[in-house]
Amino acid sequence: MAGLSVNVDHVATLREAREISYPDPVAAALLAELAGADGIVVHLRKDRRHIQDRDVRILRKVVQTKLILEMAPTSEMVGIALDIKPDLVTLVPEKREELTTEGGLDLFVHKNSVAETVGSLQDNGIPVSIFIDSEPEQIKLAHKINASTVEIHTGTFCDATTPQKRNQTFDKIVDAVKLAYKLKLKINAGHGICYNTIKAFNGLHEIDEFSIGHSIVSRAVLVGMEKAVKEMSVLIKEL
Ligand code: PXP
């Protein structure tokens, strides 16, 4: 059965909108854990637009399940990860002008630098996942550079506006998951998944964990964090 890692970045987005101390993503993370989350995810961006260094440091001390640090493969972030020692690092591409992560890391372009980052982290006992598009060649490269896990980018499927595009993008996800499974990679999936799109993953049991943020935090604003997490956990258990 797949797990659920809850991304609390957007609790910090709300806090940073006023540059004050609440709502605290640390409090949201603890509530998510109480509601049954299997992990907490935060993306520490270079521009610190939502999650701050202080959040990651406190989360490391208080998270009881596992802490997953999303980050760009830069020397600054590697230094922070080596210091904080999250349970998993997910490497993502990062552009300052983007609203959110726009696609997977392109390993054709960044293979050598990403391989170096994977090496420095994994040699220090921090497993690394690479966020990639559902392209067979990208998955083979992630395997080649020794990443323990891949996170399949589900955003193109979740954002698809026609049935044809939805089917096409989902077929690619299925092929990518099957290939990664054959290569014995651990498989996570995430980006853009909501209470509807999660249902499409029914039967795709090779996926170890879903990483979900925006839809859960959005629902939490209306119904509370624990209810929002529980509702998503139930949907994942039914897959
Ligand atoms: N996985 C990765 C690699 C991401 O960058 C994000 C967004 O921070 C997510 C999952 C979660 O996406 P969403 O907030 O759309 O659920």
Cα-to-Cα separation, first versus last residue: 8 Å
Low-confidence stretches: none
Q: Major beta sheet, specifics?
A: 8 strands, parallel, barrel
| Ligand names | pyridoxine-5'-phosphate
- The name of the CATH superfamily reads Aldolase class I
Count of runs of 4 or more consecutive helical residues: 10
Computed over alpha carbons, the radius of gyration is 17 Å
So what's the overall shape?
Answer: globular
What is the CATH class? Alpha Beta
Helix-and-strand structural type: alpha/beta
CATH architecture annotation name: Alpha-Beta Barrel
Count of distinct structural domains: 1
Secondary-structure element series: EHHEHEHEHEHEHHEEHH
Number of strands: 8
What is the CATH topology descriptor?
TIM Barrel
Quote the beta fraction: 15-25%
Helical fraction: 40-55%
Strand order of the largest sheet: 1-2-3-4-5-6-7-8
Mean pLDDT: 96
